[in-house]
Predict the 3D structure of the following.
Amino acid sequence: MSIESAYQLLYSGVLVVLGILIFFLLIRAVIGPRVTDRMICVNMIGTMVIASILILSVYLDEGYLADVGLIYVMISFISVIMLAAVYIPRHPDRARYNPEAIEEFRAEEKAAAGDDAGEAPVKANQYRSKRRKPSAAGKGGRR
Amino acid sequence: MMEWIQFFVTAFFLIAACIFFIGEVVGVYRLGFIMNRVHAGGIGDTMALFCVCLGLGIASGPCFDTLKIAMILIFMWFTSPVSSHFIGQVEYFTNPHLYRHVRRLENIHKYNEVTHEFH
């Protein structure tokens, strides 16, 4: 086996593995329940594409592909930052440091730890169903 | 002989990068808490790309392309933690149930803004 074919085999194998991983990340980005999962997947797909571009630039011995990779790094970074800038100011009142939400969680935990199973699970179920089913205001039209 | 040593070092680093990338994807699929998934993504952004760049730099030798690859690596090392920070901030601002995973926040009313301590 000559050294050229060995390098060819190595680079091809790594590129195939990267392609399979990008496919799995795309599936995860589609099924991701929250927006942050999708953002993580977009970030990771960008990283893997950059790695692929770098491997191709050495494999094909084309130096300008490294410049393409540099531009791709910047675009990937800006995309994540812009997504964050879109989503951060939307819910300023739903932050984690919400004392009402913490009180609600404490009441829920206390009710779950209590003896009588009458009121507490109903409350929890109500809270979960509120998230799943669309509300009456949401049926009219999604904003 | 020297070329084969170069090839094996390159292969070692590229296969290590593949292992890091696979671990990243497995972590994103398997971990339950969102910040752990952010951490898994950050591992792939920094460590796996470092392995790729080191392997390719050894393979291509000292030339101008290696410098460009190193520049990409340095840029990625600066931007990837910022991206992870912003993703965590999005989760912090949009997830009203995040405090359930962070036990310390139950004592948020004990937080002292001057000393930044809980007491």
Remarks:
- Strands of chain B lie at 111-112, 117-118.
